What we know:
The protein is an alpha+beta fold. Helix content is about 20%, strand content about 40%. It starts with a helix and ends with a helix.
Amino acid sequence: MKAVRVTMLGILILGLGLVGRADQLPPNDPQIKTGGPLSASSFSSLAVPASAPAPTPIITLDFTIQSPSGTSPGTSPCILIEGGFTFTSPQCFFENDVNPSGVGDTVTELTFDALGISPSTVSCGELSGSPFSNCGVDAIAGGTEVDFTDGSIPFHTDFTLSFDGFPKGFSLSASASAAPEPGTMALLLAGLGSLAIRRKRS
Length: 202
């Protein structure tokens, strides 16, 4: 009888601990994932229409992604905020249109900062066709940083994002590391070389 009471007390304490934790975070620990172009296999819970919608363009290296429900695209769209403008992407479907120098850039790394979220609760991963093969979770001042590396998103290429288990209305600051397209860089270098030769001849 004493063993039964001890077991029941243990279950009660464990249950109270879980209730306390549920007040702090949603039931699922937060996750961020990257994926390839939108397809029926991109998100198991997402019904993709016969004609896929146009991707939402990302044109700046620094932007914000907000999830109204904390789980996007599962239960709410992604809200993209960049350059003072707000765009809604129901399927969290985006296109790399980063073009600061006028030559079109390849995104070589994507970083998300989740302030107020403990890194011990966050995970990351890749969905079907992800442009990146590696991701890492690190602590930063006041929260968590999730970094996607070992891959790239060429200029004018589509990709998807998935956010799960974040608090409602949560915003993630995002930044992209980019490099000019290799073909464009070769043309730029050839042009600079031609100018140098012409200057020497003058």
